[in-house]
Design goal:
- The chain is mainly alpha-helical.
- The chain has one domain.
- The protein is built from 13 helices and no strands.
- The relative contact order is 0.11.
- The N terminus and C terminus are likely disordered.
Length: 293
């Protein structure tokens, strides 16, 4: 069994992640919500006081100018920053998004054909097989010069050369399964975040609504604006959780599909080496080696 090195993410991944977070935050601040409409009670009071339509419209425009500046999505999050419960949930979700971005960038770099099925390795292997030089020494030297998964799979067959062909195939198949499981296991953080982030967002919404109704019950039913404000601020955590979870789950499915495709390519490429192992088995059997029994 071959060991698997832990992947390390260079500093450039963290820099790119921070830049992406800044861009996302800027996009949040760019979406302006519709300004609040004048309250019916205010309209009735103004009519009772004898204000004309022009004066009422002028006051409404001034109110929209004052309130509309703080009614975009990013500033709604900032608006609730005074609530320590909201800060806690926003911090957890922000940490989830940071980890997801770092893992996704790392997997994008790791799951490349140049690292899993290097074209140079495939060309050299095909050259050895075409020149009838696919003996144990040459195949072993080729595998030792590459640490890619396809080299590890071929190395498993080389180490059992001279044994019956079904045994060699079984060893290579087991190595393929181990390499596939190892690569897919590194996608697990994205799957965990994709499943947990909506639950954290939902929990934040439930807690926020509980606090909003509790505040309303203690201050009276005349504080409907505070109740509505508490509810829509609480719903932001659910929106954030879903925004994080959906890309994570899509990336997990895509990365797993890439791993499966690479494993099929490895199987098709190394299928050409079976005649070489058959010749080695026949040569060993002609020498009367115990491995041929």
């Amino acid at each position: 069994m071959t060991g698997h090195k832990r992947e390390r993410f260079p500093a450039v991944f963290w820099i790119l992640t921070l830049l992406m977070l800044i861009c996302v935050w800027g996009n949040f601040n760019g979406y302006a919500a519709a300004p609040d409409a004048p309250d019916d009670a205010e309209v009735a009071d103004e009519a009772a006081d004898g204000e004309n339509v022009e004066e009422r419209d002028a006051k409404t425009d001034e109110k929209q100018d004052d309130d509309g500046k703080a009614e975009n999505l990013g500033q709604l999050i900032v608006k609730s920053s005074g609530n320590w419960v909201a800060i806690g949930f926003y911090s957890v979700l922000l940490l989830f998004s940071l980890v997801a971005m770092v893992v996704a960038l790392g997997r994008l770099v790791a799951l490349r054909r140049a690292r899993v099925v290097p074209p140079r390795f495939v060309r050299e292997l095909n050259a050895l097989l075409a020149s009838k030089q696919g003996d144990i020494e040459n195949l072993g030297s080729l595998c030792d010069g590459s640490g890619s998964p396809i080299a590890k799979v071929l190395k498993a067959g080389v180490l059992r050369s001279g044994r019956p062909l079904p045994e060699i195939e079984k060893a290579m198949e087991d190595t393929v399964a181990r390499e596939s499981a190892a690569m897919q296991s590194r996608n697990r953080p994205l799957a965990v975040i994709g499943n947990v982030a909506p639950l954290v967002g939902l929990l934040g919404t439930v807690v926020g609504m509980i606090l909003a109704f509790h505040r309303t019950s203690t201050q009276g039913t005349g504080k409907g604006e505070q109740l509505a404000e508490g509810i829509y601020l609480a719903l932001i955590t659910t929106a954030m959780g879903l925004t994080i979870a959906i890309p994570c789950l899509l990336l997990v499915a895509w990365f797993n599909t890439k791993v499966e495709r690479f494993m099929r390519d490895i199987d098709e490429t190394l299928l050409e080496t079976m005649p070489s192992f058959t010749r080695i088995e026949n040569a060993v059997a002609g020498d009367g080696s115990p491995a041929a029994e």
